[in-house]
Design brief:
Length: 491
């Protein structure tokens, strides 16, 4: 046969395995059948994380993102009083209720938008999503500074600003997995500690600004934080290889598996995690919302309530640094046990609050709550990477945060309803400790489920390899028969 014959590409010297001649080949088609040949090639070399370098700049940018987004959100209590004075009176109960919904809507929208943000992150990338989100948040916050009535604040601050924050926040968690693997726990601890630092320091700054320049100008100063956040988003240079998405239609639209990634829901471990954490959060945030009012009722209005908030904020930041580093030494999905411990401790501490009849006891409770709150938050992203892998982590985190928005919104109002009915917060705090304990118990199933999955995959691997080899042999035999029928020699 001449070498230029078009059938030459299907020829193979006798006795030489075809798969050795074509190591780069991935697919062969014969009629309607398709045989996948998984062979090593340059594009399949395992990605090695830099564990530093430009990643430290990305870490600082992500830390600024966490600090500015949640620092502003957590400082809404300071803005709340100024909004009451700006649009009415502090003693107007109806105005207090309507104004409180501005902050609640804003915090809820950050988590509620997360599934949508994850899709944009997969399709457009971390950099474009983060920069665009920060720009939208900047516009929303700037527009809020020109509002003269409460009604438009629901849109400018509660929706536009919050949606921008959501689009800026989630890519900051995803991009860290491009640069770190062994140090991912420590890096996430440092990044999430940014919100604790801003939460502690920003109220003092806002109090001074509100007193000197007023509410509108204070919001314009906060726009500087969002502008820096927009610049920080430009540092999110992706490193992980993009998944191939070949389509036969030639359409430029992204494939459906990138718009809605069903791979994450095929993992039983992820399904348990995605529903166990929201179940625990029905009582998780109750102490953070109602503790100040409980202290005022039990110890009087002159009690140093701010000390408790400071204790929670400081120890939460310390906990993120400590447990983030500890998580790097815990293998695989066993990191879940750190979250389980966090839920158990926070649930017990919630039940201890009504039993504290001296202020020092409450301080001890708040110190422990803050420490394990930091543990829970800092290892969310590392666990997501372990359960679904780096390629699918964006939507894994997005759907989890979206599911978290429901208990975060529902839990505290139920506790407030119980207080109004019973006259105190005792029963509310007792009941608030139950969901974290139940949710933590559910999460204990994840290491067992993942262990069984890996064992099953290891047992099925030899038979799967044998099936692939058999298909390859049959495929090559079919090619040889077809050539013989057309009068061509296999040799």
């Amino acid at each position: 046969m001449p070498e230029g014959n078009t059938a030459g590409k299907d020829e193979a010297p006798a006795g030489e395995p075809t798969e050795e001649r074509r190591p780069q080949e991935e697919k062969e088609e014969n009629g309607d059948s398709k045989v996948i040949v998984q062979t090593p090639g340059p594009e399949e070399v395992e990605f090695v994380h830099p564990e530093g370098g430009w990643g430290w700049i990305v870490m600082l940018a992500a830390m600024w993102c966490n600090g500015s987004v949640f620092g502003i959100q957590n400082a809404f209590g300071i803005l709340f009083l100024s909004l009451l004075r700006e649009f009415g009176s502090e003693n107007d109960e109806d105005l207090r209720f309507r104004t409180a919904w501005v902050g609640s809507l804003s915090m809820g929208m950050i988590f509620f938008c997360s599934p949508i943000v994850s899709v944009f992150t997969d399709v457009l990338g971390c950099r474009i999503t983060a920069v665009g989100g920060a720009a939208v948040g900047l516009v929303g916050l700037l527009a809020s500074s020109f509002v003269t009535s409460l009604g438009p604040m629901y849109f400018t601050y509660g929706i536009v600003f919050a949606c921008g924050c959501s689009f800026a926040y989630q890519p900051s968690l995803v991009i860290l997995g491009h640069y770190f693997k062994k140090r991912l726990g420590l890096v996430n601890g440092i990044v999430t500690a940014g919100s604790s630092i801003f939460t502690i320091t920003l109220p003092f700054l806002l109090s001074g600004l509100l007193e000197k320049v007023g509410l509108q100008n204070t919001m314009r100063v906060l726009c500087i934080l969002m502008f820096v956040l927009m610049l920080a988003g430009f540092t999110y240079k992706p490193l992980l290889p993009v998944k191939s998405s070949n389509t036969s239609t030639g359409s430029h639209c992204p494939p459906m598996n990138r718009i809605f990634n069903i791979n994450i829901w095929r993992s039983l471990g992820y399904r348990i995690w995605a529903f166990g954490i929201p179940a625990a959060l029905y009582g998780y945030f109750v102490p953070y919302v109602h503790l100040m009012k409980h202290v005022e009722e039990r110890f009087g209005p002159d009690a140093s309530k701010e000390v408790l908030l400071m204790c929670i904020g400081i120890t939460s930041g310390v906990g993120r640094l400590i447990f983030g580093r500890v998580a790097d030494y815990v293998n695989g999905v066993n990191k879940v046990y750190l979250q389980v411990t966090s839920f158990f401790v926070i649930g017990l501490m919630s039940m201890m609050i009504p039993l504290c009849h001296i202020f020092g006891g409450l301080i001890a409770v708040c110190l422990l709550m803050g420490l394990f709150d930091g543990c829970f938050i800092c290892i969310m992203a590392p666990i997501a990477f372990e359960l679904v892998g780096a390629e699918d982590v964006s939507q894994a985190i997005g759907f989890l945060l979206g599911l978290m928005s429901v208990p975060m919104t529902v839990g505290p109002p139920i506790a407030g309803f119980l207080r109004d009915r019973l006259g105190n917060y005792n029963v509310a705090f007792y009941l608030a400790g139950i969901p974290p304990i139940i949710g933590g118990a559910v999460l204990c199933l994840i290491p067992w489920v993942e262990g069984r999955r890996k064992k099953r995959e290891k047992e099925e691997a030899p038979s799967r390899d044998q099936d692939v080899s058999q298909k390859m042999i049959e495929h090559e035999k079919a090619q040889g028969d077809a050539q013989c029928k057309t009068g061509e020699s296999v040799l």
